[in-house]
Amino acid sequence: MATVGVVAAVEPRVRRPALGYAMVLAAGVLFGVNGAVSKVALSSGLTSLRLTEARCAGACVGLALAALALDPASLRLRRGEWRRLAVFGVVGVAWVQLFYFLAINRLAIGIALLIQYLGPLLVALWARAVGHEQVRRRIWVALGLSLAGLTLMVQLWSGRSVDGLGVAFALVSAVVFAAYLLLAERRVAERDSIPLLAWGFFFATLFWTVVQPWWGFPARAVGRTVPLQGHLASWHLPVWALVVWVVVLGTLVPFTLIVGALRHVTATRVGIVAMLEPVVATIVAWVWLQESLAPVQIAGAAVVLVGIVLAQTAR
User: Fold this and answer.
1) Among 5, 148, 173, 273, which is least packed by CB within 10 angstroms?
2) Does residue 11 lie within any of the structural domains?
């Protein structure tokens, strides 16, 4: 799951667009593959809450170490800042991952991701209605396309193809994702991206530690060896290896690539190129997990993609 709302606070001296686009593409592929890895991890008996907790804790440690290596002073908190960072960490970081994991546990990964990616559309609507910002009229076209495509994807007329609770989780994830983007947009004006994310994941980890203390973590489930499902069902890996993938290659590396790309490419273009994630996720889920979409769902997904791209460029 990509989070492209955090923008670089400092303009670089030299922009290399080709490098920036390559970094975004690599991040999109890693985020897309991470969906399938996460789904296999969740099938092992590890709950969505615990996987979210482990991902937040691992990312917190990695990002904090990166911030300390680059500029230790960047992690210092200003007076009263911790409250704003706590909201960003709990709502924007912890909840968006939780509802994403809850959604992919019940839905095809591609559908869950595309619904979540309605977040940027909600941000543009918020900017126009509440922030009174100038937003291009194409936002209404984007809204219409996204709703039409979503209707095709979930096949509302059939009442059978898509798990209703999974769709609800994905819609909540889209709302929380929009909140993340808005919160990150404000906070990044005050500090650089990596320390901001480090504090966000810290408060997310603190939140989960209170909600579900670490001494109750299902160590046995993490030590269990599970089949990789689908076409890779004959292969087995320990759950801890899947969790390590989610933390390192599904979080730390792609986040770092996105942050690095923003030094070479504008945030709007990064957001559009990052739409590769649901496409990769759908292909990986089809090839690996044997998840398939009906032709009408594929058509709906394409319509939603067009709507989201329009939304990215409307603000």
Assistant:
1) 148
2) no
Report residue 66 as tokens: 């990166």
What are the structure tokens assigned to 142, written together?
Answer: 């984007």
pLDDT of residue 8: 43
Q: Which of 14-23, 203-212, 231-240, 244-253 has the lowest mean pLDDT?
A: 14-23
- Per the domain annotation, does 6 fall within a domain? no
Lowest-confidence segment of 2-11, 23-32, 47-56, 157-166 by average pLDDT: 2-11
Nearest one of 305, 200, 203, 206 to 259, comparing CA atoms: 200
Q: Give the pLDDT score at 10.
A: 43
- Name the maximum alpha-carbon separation found in the chain: 56
Q: What is the mean pLDDT of residues 240-255?
A: 90
Domain-located, residue 18: no
The yes-or-no verdict on residue 202 having pLDDT over 90 is yes
Residues in the chain: 315
Q: Considering the domain boundaries, does residue 63 fall inside one?
A: yes
pLDDT in tens, 96-116: 888 988 988 888 887 888 888
How confident is the model over 223-239, as a mean pLDDT? 89
Contacts of 257 (CB under 8 A, 6+ apart): 23, 24, 26, 27, 30
Where do we find the tokens 């990964």?
109
Contact of 45 with 218, CB cutoff 8 Å: yes
What residue ranges in 108-150 does DSSP mark as E strands? Answer: none
Phi then psi dihedrals of residue 163, to 5 deg: -65, 120
Angle between helices 17-42 and 253-261 (to 10 degrees): 160
Number of domains composing the chain: 1
Q: Could you give phi then psi for residue 63, rounded to 5 degrees?
A: -70, -35
CB 257 within 8 A of CB 26: yes
CB 194 within 8 A of CB 66: yes
Q: Residue 61's closest CA among 231, 258, 202, 238?
A: 202
